[in-house]
Amino acid sequence: MAKILIPTPLRQYVAKQDAVEVAGATVGEVLATLTSEHEELRRHLYSDEGKLRSFVNVYINDEDIRYLQKDKTPVADGDTISIVPSIAGGVTVETPAPPATLSKEEVLRYSRHLIMPEVGMDGQIKLKSASVLLVGAGGLGSPLALYLAAAGIGRIGLVDFDVVDFTNLQRQVIHGTSDVGRKKLDSAAAKMTEINPYVSIGRHEVALSSENALDIIKDYDIVVDGTDNFPTRYLVNDACVLLGKPNVYGSIFRFEGQATVFAYEDGPCYRCLYPEPPPPGLVPSCAEGGVLGILPGLIGLVQATETVKLILGKGEPLVGRLLLYDALAMRFRELKLRRNPECPACGDHPTITKLIDYHQFCGVPRQEQEPVPSQGLSEWEIHPVQVKGNLDRGDRFLLLDVREPHEYQICRIPAAKLIPLGELPKRVHELDSSEEIVAYCRSGVRSGKAVDFLRQAGFRKVKNMVGGILAWSDKVDPSVPKY
Ligand SMILES: [Zn+2]
Q1: In which residue ranges of the chain is pLDDT below 50?
Q2: pLDDT score recorded for residue 83
Q3: Active site residue 362
Q4: pLDDT tens digits, 406-455
Q5: 441 is catalytic
Q6: C-alpha 110 – ligand 1 centre gap (Å)
Q7: How far is the CA of 347 from the centre of ligand 1 (A)?
Q8: What is the radius of gyration, based on Cα positions, of the chain?
Q9: What is the distance in A from the centroid of ligand 1 to the CA of 348?
Q10: CB atoms closer than 10 angstroms to residue 282
Protein backbone atom coordinates (compact mmCIF):
# COMPACT_ATOMS: atom_id res chain seq x y z
CA MET A 1 0.00 0.00 0.00
CA ALA A 2 1.14 3.54 -0.78
CA LYS A 3 0.00 6.65 0.97
CA ILE A 4 -1.25 9.47 -1.28
CA LEU A 5 -1.13 12.93 0.25
CA ILE A 6 -4.03 15.08 -0.93
CA PRO A 7 -3.47 18.86 -1.14
CA THR A 8 -6.00 21.17 0.49
CA PRO A 9 -7.78 22.29 -2.69
CA LEU A 10 -8.44 18.71 -3.73
CA ARG A 11 -9.58 17.35 -0.37
CA GLN A 12 -13.15 18.30 -1.09
CA TYR A 13 -13.18 15.55 -3.73
CA VAL A 14 -11.95 12.82 -1.39
CA ALA A 15 -14.33 13.25 1.54
CA LYS A 16 -12.02 15.85 3.11
CA GLN A 17 -9.25 13.33 3.76
CA ASP A 18 -5.70 14.61 3.76
CA ALA A 19 -4.27 11.22 2.86
CA VAL A 20 -5.59 8.09 1.20
CA GLU A 21 -4.07 4.59 1.23
CA VAL A 22 -4.15 2.93 -2.16
CA ALA A 23 -2.62 -0.25 -3.58
CA GLY A 24 -0.88 -0.49 -6.95
CA ALA A 25 2.39 -1.48 -8.58
CA THR A 26 3.03 1.79 -10.40
CA VAL A 27 2.13 5.44 -9.89
CA GLY A 28 -0.26 5.16 -12.84
CA GLU A 29 -2.09 2.22 -11.26
CA VAL A 30 -2.28 3.90 -7.88
CA LEU A 31 -3.75 7.08 -9.36
CA ALA A 32 -6.18 5.08 -11.51
CA THR A 33 -7.47 3.32 -8.39
CA LEU A 34 -7.70 6.61 -6.52
CA THR A 35 -9.67 8.36 -9.25
CA SER A 36 -11.97 5.40 -9.81
CA GLU A 37 -12.88 5.58 -6.13
CA HIS A 38 -13.23 9.37 -6.26
CA GLU A 39 -14.79 10.20 -9.60
CA GLU A 40 -14.86 13.98 -8.96
CA LEU A 41 -11.13 14.03 -8.51
CA ARG A 42 -10.56 12.54 -11.93
CA ARG A 43 -11.46 15.63 -13.94
CA HIS A 44 -9.20 17.73 -11.74
CA LEU A 45 -6.25 15.46 -12.30
CA TYR A 46 -6.83 14.21 -15.84
CA SER A 47 -7.73 15.91 -19.09
CA ASP A 48 -10.59 14.60 -21.25
CA GLU A 49 -7.98 12.64 -23.19
CA GLY A 50 -7.00 10.83 -20.01
CA LYS A 51 -3.69 12.64 -19.64
CA LEU A 52 -2.49 13.86 -16.28
CA ARG A 53 -3.09 17.60 -16.36
CA SER A 54 0.06 19.56 -16.88
CA PHE A 55 -0.42 21.75 -13.86
CA VAL A 56 -0.56 18.74 -11.57
CA ASN A 57 2.76 17.41 -10.43
CA VAL A 58 3.14 14.01 -8.82
CA TYR A 59 5.97 13.19 -6.49
CA ILE A 60 6.95 9.83 -5.11
CA ASN A 61 8.67 10.41 -1.81
CA ASP A 62 10.71 13.49 -2.71
CA GLU A 63 11.16 12.85 -6.43
CA ASP A 64 9.09 14.26 -9.27
CA ILE A 65 7.84 11.31 -11.34
CA ARG A 66 8.54 13.28 -14.54
CA TYR A 67 12.21 12.67 -13.79
CA LEU A 68 11.70 9.01 -12.97
CA GLN A 69 9.58 6.73 -15.15
CA LYS A 70 6.50 8.98 -15.13
CA ASP A 71 3.31 6.96 -14.56
CA LYS A 72 5.31 3.74 -14.93
CA THR A 73 7.37 4.60 -11.89
CA PRO A 74 7.20 1.59 -9.56
CA VAL A 75 5.60 1.99 -6.16
CA ALA A 76 6.83 0.09 -3.13
CA ASP A 77 4.99 -0.59 0.09
CA GLY A 78 5.18 2.42 2.40
CA ASP A 79 5.99 4.94 -0.37
CA THR A 80 4.41 8.35 -0.10
CA ILE A 81 2.90 9.88 -3.22
CA SER A 82 2.20 13.61 -3.23
CA ILE A 83 -0.13 15.35 -5.64
CA VAL A 84 1.09 18.90 -6.04
CA PRO A 85 -1.05 21.18 -8.16
CA SER A 86 0.72 24.36 -9.16
CA ILE A 87 -0.05 27.10 -6.72
CA ALA A 88 -0.24 30.77 -7.46
CA GLY A 89 -0.28 32.61 -4.18
CA GLY A 90 -2.31 29.96 -2.48
CA VAL A 91 -4.77 29.67 -5.32
CA THR A 92 -5.07 26.48 -7.30
CA VAL A 93 -4.25 27.19 -10.88
CA GLU A 94 -6.51 25.18 -13.12
CA THR A 95 -5.30 26.83 -16.27
CA PRO A 96 -2.77 25.54 -18.75
CA ALA A 97 0.71 24.72 -17.55
CA PRO A 98 2.83 27.57 -16.32
CA PRO A 99 5.18 28.35 -19.13
CA ALA A 100 8.73 27.75 -18.03
CA THR A 101 9.91 31.07 -19.36
CA LEU A 102 8.74 34.34 -20.82
CA SER A 103 9.50 35.25 -24.40
CA LYS A 104 12.02 37.97 -25.14
CA GLU A 105 9.17 40.36 -25.94
CA GLU A 106 7.45 39.51 -22.68
CA VAL A 107 10.62 40.07 -20.68
CA LEU A 108 10.83 43.54 -22.18
CA ARG A 109 7.15 44.23 -21.64
CA TYR A 110 7.22 43.20 -17.98
CA SER A 111 10.69 44.50 -17.16
CA ARG A 112 9.42 46.90 -14.47
CA HIS A 113 7.88 43.91 -12.74
CA LEU A 114 10.84 41.63 -13.28
CA ILE A 115 13.29 43.93 -11.52
CA MET A 116 11.13 44.02 -8.39
CA PRO A 117 12.04 41.27 -5.93
CA GLU A 118 8.35 40.92 -4.95
CA VAL A 119 7.44 39.95 -8.50
CA GLY A 120 10.52 38.88 -10.44
CA MET A 121 10.47 36.10 -13.00
CA ASP A 122 8.66 33.69 -10.68
CA GLY A 123 5.93 36.20 -9.95
CA GLN A 124 5.48 37.18 -13.58
CA ILE A 125 5.12 33.53 -14.51
CA LYS A 126 2.54 33.14 -11.74
CA LEU A 127 0.62 36.05 -13.23
CA LYS A 128 0.86 34.50 -16.67
CA SER A 129 -0.33 31.14 -15.34
CA ALA A 130 -3.27 32.65 -13.49
CA SER A 131 -6.83 33.08 -14.65
CA VAL A 132 -9.21 35.72 -13.38
CA LEU A 133 -12.93 36.05 -14.07
CA LEU A 134 -14.39 39.55 -14.15
CA VAL A 135 -18.12 39.56 -13.57
CA GLY A 136 -19.26 42.66 -15.43
CA ALA A 137 -17.39 44.82 -17.96
CA GLY A 138 -18.81 48.06 -16.58
CA GLY A 139 -17.61 50.64 -14.08
CA LEU A 140 -15.48 48.36 -11.91
CA GLY A 141 -14.76 45.94 -14.73
CA SER A 142 -13.19 48.65 -16.90
CA PRO A 143 -10.14 49.51 -14.79
CA LEU A 144 -9.85 45.87 -13.73
CA ALA A 145 -9.72 44.61 -17.30
CA LEU A 146 -7.31 47.31 -18.46
CA TYR A 147 -4.81 46.91 -15.64
CA LEU A 148 -5.01 43.15 -15.23
CA ALA A 149 -4.41 42.78 -18.95
CA ALA A 150 -1.48 45.17 -18.77
CA ALA A 151 -0.05 43.34 -15.75
CA GLY A 152 0.10 40.12 -17.73
CA ILE A 153 -2.60 37.92 -16.21
CA GLY A 154 -2.58 34.94 -18.56
CA ARG A 155 -6.30 34.44 -18.94
CA ILE A 156 -9.02 36.96 -18.18
CA GLY A 157 -12.66 35.98 -18.45
CA LEU A 158 -15.40 38.56 -18.90
CA VAL A 159 -19.05 37.98 -18.14
CA ASP A 160 -21.28 40.61 -19.73
CA PHE A 161 -24.19 40.67 -22.14
CA ASP A 162 -24.77 44.40 -22.20
CA VAL A 163 -24.28 46.92 -24.97
CA VAL A 164 -22.31 50.16 -24.51
CA ASP A 165 -24.53 53.20 -24.18
CA PHE A 166 -23.80 56.89 -23.76
CA THR A 167 -24.54 56.88 -20.02
CA ASN A 168 -21.71 54.35 -19.54
CA LEU A 169 -18.94 56.55 -20.89
CA GLN A 170 -18.67 58.77 -17.80
CA ARG A 171 -16.99 55.93 -15.90
CA GLN A 172 -16.62 52.78 -18.01
CA VAL A 173 -13.30 53.88 -19.45
CA ILE A 174 -12.60 50.72 -21.38
CA HIS A 175 -15.33 51.79 -23.80
CA GLY A 176 -15.15 54.86 -26.05
CA THR A 177 -17.66 57.02 -27.86
CA SER A 178 -17.28 55.02 -31.06
CA ASP A 179 -18.16 51.85 -29.10
CA VAL A 180 -21.69 53.02 -28.27
CA GLY A 181 -24.09 50.36 -29.52
CA ARG A 182 -21.34 47.72 -29.53
CA LYS A 183 -21.33 44.72 -27.22
CA LYS A 184 -19.31 45.50 -24.12
CA LEU A 185 -17.52 42.18 -24.55
CA ASP A 186 -16.31 43.12 -28.02
CA SER A 187 -15.31 46.59 -27.01
CA ALA A 188 -13.48 45.45 -23.86
CA ALA A 189 -11.73 42.53 -25.56
CA ALA A 190 -10.46 44.78 -28.33
CA LYS A 191 -8.94 47.24 -25.84
CA MET A 192 -7.36 44.49 -23.75
CA THR A 193 -5.81 42.82 -26.78
CA GLU A 194 -4.47 46.16 -27.92
CA ILE A 195 -2.87 46.66 -24.49
CA ASN A 196 -1.52 43.14 -24.22
CA PRO A 197 -1.84 40.57 -27.00
CA TYR A 198 -0.39 37.88 -24.71
CA VAL A 199 -3.57 37.78 -22.64
CA SER A 200 -6.13 35.18 -23.57
CA ILE A 201 -9.68 36.44 -23.11
CA GLY A 202 -12.57 34.20 -22.09
CA ARG A 203 -15.82 35.62 -23.39
CA HIS A 204 -19.03 34.77 -21.56
CA GLU A 205 -21.87 36.62 -23.22
CA VAL A 206 -24.53 35.69 -20.69
CA ALA A 207 -26.18 36.97 -17.58
CA LEU A 208 -24.52 35.01 -14.79
CA SER A 209 -27.23 32.75 -13.37
CA SER A 210 -27.70 29.82 -11.04
CA GLU A 211 -27.72 27.60 -14.11
CA ASN A 212 -24.37 28.68 -15.54
CA ALA A 213 -22.36 30.23 -12.68
CA LEU A 214 -20.58 27.11 -11.40
CA ASP A 215 -19.69 26.03 -14.87
CA ILE A 216 -18.18 29.38 -15.76
CA ILE A 217 -16.44 30.08 -12.46
CA LYS A 218 -14.87 26.65 -12.01
CA ASP A 219 -12.35 27.32 -14.76
CA TYR A 220 -10.88 30.41 -13.10
CA ASP A 221 -8.58 30.86 -10.11
CA ILE A 222 -10.03 34.12 -8.82
CA VAL A 223 -13.38 35.84 -9.30
CA VAL A 224 -13.67 39.60 -9.23
CA ASP A 225 -17.15 40.86 -8.50
CA GLY A 226 -17.93 44.00 -10.47
CA THR A 227 -21.68 43.60 -10.44
CA ASP A 228 -24.22 46.29 -9.69
CA ASN A 229 -27.13 44.25 -8.35
CA PHE A 230 -27.84 42.10 -5.33
CA PRO A 231 -29.02 38.89 -7.01
CA THR A 232 -25.73 38.58 -8.92
CA ARG A 233 -23.72 39.56 -5.86
CA TYR A 234 -25.21 36.74 -3.77
CA LEU A 235 -24.90 34.38 -6.70
CA VAL A 236 -21.20 35.19 -7.13
CA ASN A 237 -20.63 34.80 -3.39
CA ASP A 238 -22.34 31.46 -3.07
CA ALA A 239 -20.73 30.06 -6.20
CA CYS A 240 -17.29 31.13 -4.97
CA VAL A 241 -17.85 29.58 -1.54
CA LEU A 242 -19.10 26.34 -3.10
CA LEU A 243 -16.11 26.16 -5.45
CA GLY A 244 -13.53 27.46 -2.98
CA LYS A 245 -12.57 30.43 -5.17
CA PRO A 246 -11.56 33.79 -3.73
CA ASN A 247 -14.09 36.53 -4.46
CA VAL A 248 -12.57 39.98 -4.79
CA TYR A 249 -15.43 42.27 -3.94
CA GLY A 250 -16.02 45.93 -4.71
CA SER A 251 -19.06 48.15 -4.66
CA ILE A 252 -19.72 51.79 -5.35
CA PHE A 253 -22.46 54.31 -4.76
CA ARG A 254 -22.33 58.05 -5.38
CA PHE A 255 -19.13 59.07 -3.53
CA GLU A 256 -18.55 55.93 -1.50
CA GLY A 257 -16.92 52.64 -2.21
CA GLN A 258 -16.17 49.36 -0.47
CA ALA A 259 -13.73 46.58 -1.15
CA THR A 260 -12.62 43.36 0.46
CA VAL A 261 -11.68 39.79 -0.40
CA PHE A 262 -14.26 37.17 0.44
CA ALA A 263 -14.13 33.40 0.58
CA TYR A 264 -10.36 33.21 0.85
CA GLU A 265 -8.93 30.58 3.16
CA ASP A 266 -10.49 31.10 6.60
CA GLY A 267 -11.82 34.55 5.83
CA PRO A 268 -15.48 35.55 5.74
CA CYS A 269 -17.84 35.61 2.78
CA TYR A 270 -20.36 38.19 1.66
CA ARG A 271 -23.12 36.43 3.59
CA CYS A 272 -21.08 36.62 6.80
CA LEU A 273 -21.32 40.37 6.29
CA TYR A 274 -24.84 40.52 4.90
CA PRO A 275 -26.76 37.26 5.44
CA GLU A 276 -29.86 38.72 3.79
CA PRO A 277 -30.29 41.26 1.01
CA PRO A 278 -31.96 44.59 1.74
CA PRO A 279 -35.63 44.76 0.82
CA PRO A 280 -36.06 45.63 -2.86
CA GLY A 281 -35.91 49.34 -3.53
CA LEU A 282 -34.34 50.23 -0.18
CA VAL A 283 -30.85 50.60 -1.52
CA PRO A 284 -30.89 52.47 -4.80
CA SER A 285 -28.71 51.28 -7.64
CA CYS A 286 -26.15 53.53 -9.32
CA ALA A 287 -28.65 53.96 -12.15
CA GLU A 288 -31.11 55.47 -9.67
CA GLY A 289 -28.75 57.11 -7.20
CA GLY A 290 -25.85 58.05 -9.42
CA VAL A 291 -22.13 57.48 -9.02
CA LEU A 292 -19.10 59.71 -9.30
CA GLY A 293 -17.43 58.60 -12.53
CA ILE A 294 -13.97 58.44 -11.00
CA LEU A 295 -15.02 56.25 -8.08
CA PRO A 296 -15.16 52.87 -9.86
CA GLY A 297 -11.66 53.58 -11.16
CA LEU A 298 -10.34 53.76 -7.62
CA ILE A 299 -12.29 50.83 -6.21
CA GLY A 300 -11.69 48.72 -9.31
CA LEU A 301 -7.97 49.25 -8.91
CA VAL A 302 -8.12 48.25 -5.24
CA GLN A 303 -9.69 45.03 -6.50
CA ALA A 304 -7.04 44.67 -9.21
CA THR A 305 -4.29 45.18 -6.63
CA GLU A 306 -5.73 42.52 -4.34
CA THR A 307 -6.07 40.14 -7.28
CA VAL A 308 -2.42 40.54 -8.22
CA LYS A 309 -1.34 40.15 -4.58
CA LEU A 310 -3.32 36.92 -4.21
CA ILE A 311 -1.68 35.52 -7.32
CA LEU A 312 1.79 36.54 -6.26
CA GLY A 313 1.16 35.41 -2.69
CA LYS A 314 2.70 38.69 -1.51
CA GLY A 315 1.68 41.22 1.08
CA GLU A 316 -1.28 41.22 3.39
CA PRO A 317 -4.48 40.41 1.54
CA LEU A 318 -7.62 42.44 2.22
CA VAL A 319 -9.17 39.44 3.96
CA GLY A 320 -11.26 39.96 7.07
CA ARG A 321 -11.09 43.70 6.51
CA LEU A 322 -13.70 45.83 4.78
CA LEU A 323 -12.12 48.88 3.20
CA LEU A 324 -14.46 51.86 3.10
CA TYR A 325 -13.66 54.83 0.95
CA ASP A 326 -15.33 58.21 1.12
CA ALA A 327 -14.34 60.35 -1.85
CA LEU A 328 -15.91 63.54 -0.50
CA ALA A 329 -13.91 63.39 2.71
CA MET A 330 -11.01 61.66 0.93
CA ARG A 331 -10.82 59.18 3.74
CA PHE A 332 -10.23 55.46 3.93
CA ARG A 333 -11.47 53.41 6.85
CA GLU A 334 -11.25 49.75 7.66
CA LEU A 335 -13.69 47.51 9.47
CA LYS A 336 -12.86 44.08 10.81
CA LEU A 337 -14.82 41.28 9.23
CA ARG A 338 -15.03 37.86 10.76
CA ARG A 339 -16.23 34.61 9.38
CA ASN A 340 -19.58 33.88 10.97
CA PRO A 341 -19.73 30.25 12.18
CA GLU A 342 -23.50 30.47 11.62
CA CYS A 343 -23.10 31.74 8.04
CA PRO A 344 -25.49 29.83 5.75
CA ALA A 345 -22.83 29.72 3.03
CA CYS A 346 -19.41 29.36 4.67
CA GLY A 347 -20.34 28.61 8.29
CA ASP A 348 -19.72 25.42 10.22
CA HIS A 349 -23.07 23.97 9.17
CA PRO A 350 -23.82 25.53 5.80
CA THR A 351 -27.39 25.33 4.55
CA ILE A 352 -26.55 26.59 1.09
CA THR A 353 -25.25 23.53 -0.63
CA LYS A 354 -26.32 24.52 -4.13
CA LEU A 355 -27.22 27.69 -5.96
CA ILE A 356 -30.74 29.07 -5.45
CA ASP A 357 -33.06 31.48 -7.27
CA TYR A 358 -31.33 34.76 -6.41
CA HIS A 359 -33.94 37.02 -7.95
CA GLN A 360 -36.54 35.47 -5.71
CA PHE A 361 -34.15 35.59 -2.74
CA CYS A 362 -33.58 39.32 -3.28
CA GLY A 363 -37.20 40.01 -4.20
CA VAL A 364 -36.10 41.56 -7.47
CA PRO A 365 -37.85 40.71 -10.73
CA ARG A 366 -35.68 39.35 -13.50
CA GLN A 367 -34.63 41.55 -16.41
CA GLU A 368 -35.26 44.77 -14.54
CA GLN A 369 -33.36 46.54 -17.30
CA GLU A 370 -35.74 45.28 -19.94
CA PRO A 371 -38.03 47.67 -21.76
CA VAL A 372 -41.49 48.20 -20.42
CA PRO A 373 -43.95 45.47 -21.24
CA SER A 374 -46.95 46.82 -23.06
CA GLN A 375 -49.27 44.14 -21.72
CA GLY A 376 -49.88 42.79 -18.29
CA LEU A 377 -50.21 46.17 -16.62
CA SER A 378 -52.21 46.39 -13.42
CA GLU A 379 -55.08 48.81 -13.01
CA TRP A 380 -52.62 51.14 -11.23
CA GLU A 381 -50.22 51.25 -14.14
CA ILE A 382 -50.19 52.94 -17.51
CA HIS A 383 -47.86 52.68 -20.48
CA PRO A 384 -46.13 55.84 -21.75
CA VAL A 385 -47.77 55.40 -25.17
CA GLN A 386 -51.21 55.46 -23.52
CA VAL A 387 -50.21 58.57 -21.58
CA LYS A 388 -49.21 60.23 -24.85
CA GLY A 389 -52.52 59.19 -26.42
CA ASN A 390 -54.44 60.66 -23.50
CA LEU A 391 -52.48 63.92 -23.74
CA ASP A 392 -53.07 64.11 -27.49
CA ARG A 393 -56.81 63.60 -26.97
CA GLY A 394 -56.82 66.47 -24.52
CA ASP A 395 -57.87 64.32 -21.55
CA ARG A 396 -57.69 66.19 -18.28
CA PHE A 397 -55.25 64.65 -15.85
CA LEU A 398 -52.29 65.68 -13.76
CA LEU A 399 -48.82 64.49 -14.67
CA LEU A 400 -46.95 64.20 -11.39
CA ASP A 401 -43.15 64.10 -11.53
CA VAL A 402 -41.78 62.60 -8.29
CA ARG A 403 -38.09 62.92 -9.11
CA GLU A 404 -35.60 65.32 -7.54
CA PRO A 405 -35.30 68.92 -8.79
CA HIS A 406 -31.86 68.27 -10.34
CA GLU A 407 -33.38 65.46 -12.39
CA TYR A 408 -36.27 67.68 -13.43
CA GLN A 409 -33.63 70.06 -14.80
CA ILE A 410 -32.22 67.33 -17.03
CA CYS A 411 -35.51 66.52 -18.71
CA ARG A 412 -39.24 66.51 -18.05
CA ILE A 413 -42.57 65.94 -19.71
CA PRO A 414 -44.12 69.35 -20.40
CA ALA A 415 -46.77 70.49 -17.92
CA ALA A 416 -45.68 67.98 -15.29
CA LYS A 417 -45.95 69.07 -11.66
CA LEU A 418 -42.86 68.35 -9.59
CA ILE A 419 -43.24 66.94 -6.10
CA PRO A 420 -40.20 64.82 -5.12
CA LEU A 421 -41.19 61.49 -3.59
CA GLY A 422 -39.73 62.46 -0.20
CA GLU A 423 -41.91 65.59 -0.04
CA LEU A 424 -45.10 63.88 -1.09
CA PRO A 425 -46.46 63.15 2.41
CA LYS A 426 -46.29 66.79 3.47
CA ARG A 427 -47.44 68.18 0.11
CA VAL A 428 -50.22 65.71 -0.59
CA HIS A 429 -52.78 68.48 0.04
CA GLU A 430 -51.60 70.09 -3.20
CA LEU A 431 -53.18 67.20 -5.08
CA ASP A 432 -56.85 66.70 -5.83
CA SER A 433 -57.96 63.12 -5.20
CA SER A 434 -60.92 63.53 -7.56
CA GLU A 435 -58.56 64.30 -10.43
CA GLU A 436 -56.83 61.64 -12.51
CA ILE A 437 -53.12 61.54 -11.71
CA VAL A 438 -50.31 59.88 -13.64
CA ALA A 439 -47.07 59.72 -11.67
CA TYR A 440 -43.67 59.21 -13.25
CA CYS A 441 -40.01 59.19 -12.26
CA ARG A 442 -36.86 58.09 -14.04
CA SER A 443 -37.56 54.38 -14.40
CA GLY A 444 -40.90 53.81 -12.66
CA VAL A 445 -39.67 52.61 -9.26
CA ARG A 446 -40.14 55.78 -7.23
CA SER A 447 -43.41 56.66 -8.97
CA GLY A 448 -44.63 53.16 -8.08
CA LYS A 449 -43.98 54.03 -4.45
CA ALA A 450 -45.73 57.37 -4.92
CA VAL A 451 -48.79 55.58 -6.31
CA ASP A 452 -48.78 53.14 -3.38
CA PHE A 453 -48.59 56.07 -0.98
CA LEU A 454 -51.40 57.98 -2.70
CA ARG A 455 -53.63 54.90 -2.78
CA GLN A 456 -53.15 54.49 0.95
CA ALA A 457 -54.03 58.16 1.30
CA GLY A 458 -57.35 57.47 -0.41
CA PHE A 459 -56.56 58.42 -4.01
CA ARG A 460 -58.41 56.13 -6.42
CA LYS A 461 -57.60 57.63 -9.81
CA VAL A 462 -53.84 57.42 -9.72
CA LYS A 463 -51.56 55.49 -12.05
CA ASN A 464 -47.83 54.83 -12.35
CA MET A 465 -46.30 55.41 -15.78
CA VAL A 466 -44.28 52.22 -16.11
CA GLY A 467 -40.67 52.56 -17.20
CA GLY A 468 -40.61 56.22 -16.28
CA ILE A 469 -39.22 58.99 -18.41
CA LEU A 470 -36.67 56.54 -19.82
CA ALA A 471 -39.50 54.58 -21.42
CA TRP A 472 -41.08 57.87 -22.48
CA SER A 473 -37.85 58.70 -24.31
CA ASP A 474 -37.78 55.23 -25.88
CA LYS A 475 -41.40 54.92 -26.86
CA VAL A 476 -42.77 58.42 -27.22
CA ASP A 477 -40.28 61.23 -27.54
CA PRO A 478 -36.66 60.37 -28.39
CA SER A 479 -35.70 64.04 -28.04
CA VAL A 480 -36.04 63.63 -24.26
CA PRO A 481 -32.51 62.90 -23.01
CA LYS A 482 -31.90 59.72 -21.04
CA TYR A 483 -29.68 59.82 -18.01
ZN1 LIG B 1 -19.97 33.35 5.14
Answers
A1: 86-96, 368-374
A2: 81
A3: no
A4: 999 999 998 899 999 999 999 999 998 888 999 999 999 999 999 999 99
A5: yes
A6: 37
A7: 6
A8: 27
A9: 9
A10: 7
CA 230/CA 211 separation, integer angstroms: 17
Per-residue pLDDT tens for 348-361? 999 999 999 998 88
Give me the sign of the Cα torsion angle 145, 216, 10, 242.
Answer: positive
Helix (H, G, I), strand (E, B) or coil at 437: strand
Q: Which of 286, 343, 346, 411 is catalytic?
A: 286
Distance set, CA 343 to CA 149, 232, 265, 271, 321 (Å):
35, 18, 15, 6, 17
356 in Cβ contact with 341 (< 8 Å)? no
Right CATH for 381-475 from 3.30.499.10, 3.90.1150.10, 3.40.250.10, 3.20.20.70: 3.40.250.10
Q: Give every CB contact of residue 105 below 8 A, 6+ residues apart in sequence.
A: none
pTM of structure: 0.64
Question: Domain spans of the chain?
Answer: 2-85, 104-362, 381-475
CATH top-level class of 2-85? alpha beta
